[in-house]
């Protein structure tokens, strides 16, 4: 049985070592903010100064997915747990309810940042960020989408949802780790182990469950998010698409072409040697791109 003792702030030295970063670990604190009087969103605040940007993770992930990126950036920022993920309370709606998520995120950002600030979203977090940028442009100075467009559908993301929708519980930590290694053969075991500890819980009977699966599934119908291609075309702030170019990406050539047709002044960057989770495969490249497109333009 693996040692599964857990302190979420005790692993940053592993990120630093794994990516050969020569940086000091800043102050990192977990926060909770109310979004509707009954529920809270949680996340991580990096640094003591006013946050310069906000990061939204993908489905079945959590704010810690950006740890190495935050360490490389060395900027004050916030990384949120989406509703029903990480330490955030669940939404009344399903996990894919991006319209509801966007409302929650906007309410959280009102309390966390001095707007407008760059907003970065990966996958599910990217579609949520797109809606925030469209509905609350006062909060968002620029938008970065990580390997996601409105054209991504269930077929394109099948390899991801097959993993996410796997067993609902595991007999022990090692079984959870083994399945994760099987589906992520290019990642180091230490990084996968760390990621699981951030993203799973051990229950009182000794079994393990993903944090995003600890909540009961909602039977409510998700609010209509509208035509996301149309909403993308209506954005007025700078928009960048970071497209992963290795196996595992969910964005194809047709998506990229439609993205630029809808938003001709947007920027598309191809990230080599990265699958869908660019923040995991190429975190230093991602940090450099965020510096470039969020702060140097």
Architecture overview:
The chain is an alpha/beta fold and 297 residues long. The chain has one domain: Rossmann fold (3-Layer(aba) Sandwich). The chain has helices at residues 12-18, 67-73, 98-112, 124-135, 158-164, 173-183, 189-199, 228-233, 253-262, 278-281, 283-295; strands at residues 28-34, 40-46, 54-56, 77-80, 117-122, 140-146, 200-202, 208-210, 239-244, 267-271. It has an 8-stranded mixed sheet, sandwiched between helices. Helix 2 packs across helix 11, helix 3 (98-112) packs across helix 4 (124-135) and helix 6 crosses helix 7 (189-199).
Defining key terms:
globular, alpha/beta, about 35% helix, 11 helices, Rossmann fold, eight-stranded mixed sheet
What topology does this entry show?
Elements: H1 12-18, E1 28-34, E2 40-46, E3 54-56, H2 67-73, E4 77-80, H3 98-112, E5 117-122, H4 124-135, E6 140-146, H5 158-164, H6 173-183, H7 189-199, E7 200-202, E8 208-210, H8 228-233, E9 239-244, H9 253-262, E10 267-271, H10 278-281, H11 283-295
Parallel strand pairs: 3-4, 3-5, 5-6, 6-9, 9-10
Antiparallel strand pairs: 1-2, 2-4, 7-8
């Amino acid at each position: 049985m693996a040692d599964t003792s857990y302190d979420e702030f005790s692993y940053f030295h592993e990120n630093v070592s794994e990516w050969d970063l020569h940086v000091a670990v800043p102050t990192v604190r977990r926060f909770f903010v109310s979004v509707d009087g009954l529920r809270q969103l949680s996340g991580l605040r990096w640094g003591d100064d006013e946050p310069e940007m906000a990061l939204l993770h993908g489905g079945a992930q959590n704010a810690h997915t950006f740890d190495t990126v935050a360490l490389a950036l060395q900027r004050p920022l916030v990384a949120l747990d989406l509703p029903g993920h990480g330490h955030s309370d669940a939404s009344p709606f399903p996990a894919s309810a991006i319209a509801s998520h966007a409302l929650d995120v906007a309410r959280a950002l009102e309390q966390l940042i001095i707007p407008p600030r760059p907003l970065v979203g990966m996958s599910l977090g990217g579609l949520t960020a797109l809606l925030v940028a469209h509905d609350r442009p006062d909060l968002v100075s620029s938008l970065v989408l990580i390997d996601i467009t409105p054209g991504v559908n269930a077929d394109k993301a099948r390899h991801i949802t097959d993993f996410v929708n796997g067993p609902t519980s595991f007999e022990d930590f090692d079984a959870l780790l083994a399945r994760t290694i099987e589906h992520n053969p290019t990642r180091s075991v230490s990084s996968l182990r760390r990621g699981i500890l951030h993203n799973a819980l051990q229950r009182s009977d000794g079994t393990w469950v993903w944090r995003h699966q600890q909540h009961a599934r909602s039977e409510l119908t998700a609010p209509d998010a509208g035509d996301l291609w149309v909403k993308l075309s209506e954005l007025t702030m700078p928009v960048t698409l970071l497209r992963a170019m290795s196996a595992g990406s969910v964005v194809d050539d047709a998506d990229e072409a439609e993205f630029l047709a809808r938003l001709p002044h947007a920027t598309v960057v191809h990230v080599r040697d990265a699958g869908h989770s660019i923040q995991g495969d190429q975190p230093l490249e991602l940090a450099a791109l965020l510096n470039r497109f969020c702060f140097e333009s």
